[in-house]
Amino acid sequence: MKTSIRKILRRIWVIAGLSFFGWMVYSMQAKGILEQILKSDRDISVSANDYSITFTPSNSFSKVIIFYPGALVQTEAYAPLCRKLADNGYEVVLMKMPYRMANQGYEIIKEENLLSNPNKQYILAGHSQGGKMAAQFVYENPGLIDKLILLGTSHPRDYDMSEYDIPVLKLYGSNDGVASPADVRKNKSKLPSSAKFIEIKGGNHSQFGYYGFQFNDDKATIGREEQQEVILKNILNFVD
User: SS3 for the chain, per residue?
Assistant: First the structure.
């Protein structure tokens, strides 16, 4: 009898675990992406390969923004923001991380020589785990990146970058349940004293991209489009 009960409980746990994993995968899928965002036009050329989606302006540009997605989030969820950045005159390289995990592919930009043009300025950005690994890349490769943008992340937590001579922008949502404002501020001393910290009032973790509601996040009190506009405005001000 006890053996039968154990088997039933084990099956219930397995089913519950698989159901939760399925929900996680579904919620991290890109949502609300207009088809034309990933298509070339006369102003922006869109190209893709095994490790990136690149948005290249038809006009000359001097700055390249490289973006690391959050853990498990489908790469295309950040395409609307990347396309808008490209519309403002920057080449934007949206990275495809192995298994959708930035910690598995954060060095691809060096391995594929994406930072090799001395005439370009390189800005590295990342959301959530992507922000964590963007900071780690800068920590491990000082001098390769000109500016760092951290979105919705409490990192760096495990190492000190306070003496690094690099401009840093950190954007975080007041309603972020994954990287809370308290956790973000707690690690402020790990970044250069010149780092800019900007709180998005009413913003949460999930609305840094175009995907479903992330587990453990809090509810936003502003819409996704409004949060995206605040993100875009602050990034453009920082990059310029």
Answer: CHHHHHHHHHHHHHHHHHHHHHHHHHHCCECCCCHHHHCCCCCEEEEECCCEEEEEECCCCCEEEEEECCCCCCHHHHHHHHHHHHHCCCEEEEECCHHHCHHHCCCHHHHCCCCCCCCCEEEEEEECHHHHHHHHHHHHCCCCCCEEEEECCCCCCCCCCCCCCCCEEEEEECCCCCCCHHHHHHCHHHCCCCCEEEEECCCCCHHHCCECCCCCCCCCCCCHHHHHHHHHHHHHHHHC
Average pLDDT for 95-120: 96
> How far is it, in rounded angstroms, from Cα 234 to Cα 169?
9
Which residue has better confidence, 2 or 215? Answer: 215
Identity of the residue numbered 219: K
Domains, in order of start, for the chain:
31-239 (3.40.50.1820)
- 145-163: pLDDT as tens digits: 999 999 999 999 999 999 9
Residue 200's contacts (CB-CB under 8 Å, 6 or more residues apart) are: 171, 172, 173, 174, 222, 227, 230, 231
Contact (CB, 8 A) for 124 and 86? no
Q: Rounded to whole angstroms, what are the CA distances from 70 to 15, 96, 106? A: 26, 10, 12
The answer, yes or no, to whether residue 132 has pLDDT greater than 70, is yes
Return the bridge partners of 148, or none.
Answer: 124, 168
- Structure tokens given for 231: 């993100």
pLDDT at residue 28 in the model:
80
